[in-house]
Amino acid sequence: xxxxxxxxxxxxxxxxxxxxxxxxxxxxxxxxxxxxxxxxxxxxxxxxxxxxxxxxxxxxxxxxxxxxxxxxxxxxx
Length: 77
Prior knowledge:
By secondary structure, this protein is of the alpha+beta class.
């Protein structure tokens, strides 16, 4: 399984931005087990599974400071 974090392009008036965690699988059984256990990872946000692309995504909202800290960390590398 590979994991990728994506952020939306809009900061909302409540100072939040969308964050999406993508989990990519190479095995449908691994995807199925992960999907059945997803609530142990997070009960918040919105879970979706694209079974053709073998990707499970969790979308939620975080404060903009999380996004800015993320991009500042990328610039330091």
